[in-house]
Design a protein that fits this description.
294 residues; alpha+beta; Metallo-beta-lactamase, Chain A
C-alpha cells in the first residue's frame, strides 16, 4: 500500500519539495552567510574570484546553508539542523521554514547528521542549550562521534576548528540518551549511510531511495559549489585531512556525473537538489527544478 503524504498546496520561499518514489524530500533553507576566500586553500584568491564571477556568483562569496526534511515510510527525519541561534541574523531559519509547512520540531523523529561542525549541528539546541527536537533520535557516524569525543583530537586538527569541539559537545548533550551510531549501510528502509571522510573523519552522506527514485544528500563535499566543482582541488582550512577531503570530493563528483546520481547539498545554492555534469574544466551543478513538486 502506498503511503499517503500530505503535500503543501503552495511552496513558500525557503522550501523546495522533491518527490522520490513514495517519499518526499524537502530542501529547507537555513539562510546565507557572507563568506571569504580565506576559507579556500590550494587555489589562489584571484582564480577563486574568476571562477565565482564566471558562474555569475557574488564576490566576495556568500554561502548557503540548507537542511533536508525526509518523509519516508511513516518517518519524519531531518538531515542536519542548520546554524541555530548562534551564527547571526541571516541564519537560523530552519524551524520557521519547517513551521511554514506545518511541521513542528516535536514532529521530527530522527536527525541524521552529515558531520558535527557548527553550521550543521548548532540547530540542535536553542539559546538555553535545550533540545530543539525533543522527540528525535540523533544518528551520527561512529567515527565522527569518536573523533569529537576524543580529548586528543583538537591537537590533531586545524586551529580554525578548535572551538568546534566544545560546540559539538554542547549541541549533542541534550540528546545523550538517544544517540545512535552507524557505519556504512542501511539505517531504515530507504535510508542508507555512506561515509565521505576527509573534511571530518566520519562525514556521512545519506542516500534516500524509494521505488526507482533516489537522491544522495551531501554535507561538506563542497562548501562553495561553483568554485570547488570547477576546481575540485580547492580544499578548505577546516578540512581535518585535506588530501583525503580532495580525493573524496573528486570521487563523489565523478560518480555523480558518471552514474547520473541526483544529489542534494547542505551548501548548494537553493533549491539545492539536482545533478552534477562534466564541463570543460571540472564539474557543474544543474538544479532539477522541473522535477520538483509544485
Amino acid at each position: 500500500m502506498r503511503e499517503t503524504i500530505e503535500f503543501p498546496r503552495r511552496q513558500p520561499p525557503g522550501l523546495h519539495h522533491l518527490v522520490v518514489g513514495d517519499a518526499l524530500v524537502t530542501a529547507v533553507n537555513d539562510g546565507t552567510f557572507q563568506a571569504s576566500f580565506d576559507l579556500i586553500v590550494g587555489v589562489d584568491h584571484s582564480e577563486c574570484e574568476r571562477l565565482e564571477k564566471a558562474a555569475f556568483r557574488p564576490v566576495p562569496p556568500k554561502m548557503t546553508m540548507n537542511a533536508f526534511l525526509v518523509q519516508i515510510a511513516g518517518r519524519r527525519m531531518l538531515v542536519d539542523t542548520g546554524c541555530g541561534v548562534s551564527m547571526g541574523p541571516t541564519l537560523g531559519m530552519l524551524t520557521d521554514n519547517l513551521r511554514s509547512m506545518r511541521v513542528e520540531p516535536e514532529a521530527i523523529d530522527t536527525v541524521l547528521m552529515t558531520h558535527l561542525h557548527p553550521d550543521h549541528v548548532n540547530g540542535l539546541i536553542d539559546a538555553h542549550g535545550e533540545a530543539v527536537f525533543p522527540k528525535a533520535e540523533l544518528v551520527v557516524n561512529e567515527a565522527e562521534l569518536n573523533f569529537f569525543r576524543d580529548p586528543d583530537s583538537p591537537g590533531r586538527s586545524p586551529p580554525e576548528t578548535l572551538e568546534f569541539f566544545e560546540g559539538a559537545r554542547l549541541a549533542i548533550a541534550p540528546y545523550s540518551d538517544r544517540i545512535r551510531t552507524i557505519r556504512d549501510g542501511p539505517l531504515f528502509p530507504g535510508v542508507t549511510a555512506v561515509t565521505q571522510a576527509g573534511h571530518t573523519p566520519g562525514q556521512t552522506a545519506w542516500l534516500i531511495e524509494s521505488g526507482n527514485e533516489s537522491v544522495m544528500i551531501w554535507g561538506d563535499v563542497v562548501h562553495m559549489p561553483s568554485l570547488q566543482m570547477a576546481a575540485p582541488q580547492a580544499g578548505t582550512v577546516l578540512d581535518i585531512d585535506r588530501e583525503q577531503a580532495i580525493a573524496t570530493r573528486k570521487r563523489a563528483l565523478d560518480m555523480a556525473a558518471t552514474d547520473r546520481i541526483r544529489v542534494a547539498g547542505t551548501h548548494f545554492d537553493f533549491p539545492a537538489i539536482g545533478h552534477i555534469e562534466r564541463r570543460a574544466t571540472g564539474f557543474g551543478f544543474v538544479p532539477e527544478v522541473w522535477r520538483a513538486f509544485v
